[in-house]
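Lab notebook, bench 4. Still working through the backlog of constructs that have no structural model yet. Next entry is a single chain of 127 residues. Request: give me the structure tokens for it.
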Amino acid sequence: MTVTNYETLFIVHPEKGPRIKEFIERFNKVIEGQEGVVSQVEEWGLRDLAYRIQKQGKGYYTLLQYRASGRAVEELERNLRLTDGILRYLTVRDDEAHPVVAPAPAVDATEQADKPAATDSTTDSPA
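Model written out:
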């Protein structure tokens, strides 16, 4: 049995957001039940989706980093599919152990409008 580093990112329906701790706890138990070890859990919070999923424009993002076998990943993904309130999930194998930097907080449209537009002064004018 080969143990590998994996990362699973899942998005929870905004109405199920208050139950995010329950979801994390359940998925940690699934991984540990398959003799895996959860190394890090990052809650990114409520963020805008790139496109609507099940008529939702926002979702709670959570990243799980863990070491486990392929069988544990299969079981985790089966649980993610069957859990009501999970909009999407993605699991990738992490070949290198490196720290993950959480994404920057979402910027309000009003904050972005207040900032001046950047100009590119390196372009050459035609001669």
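Notes after review: Helices lie at 20-33, 70-82, 109-114. The radius of gyration is 19 Å. Flag for follow-up if needed.
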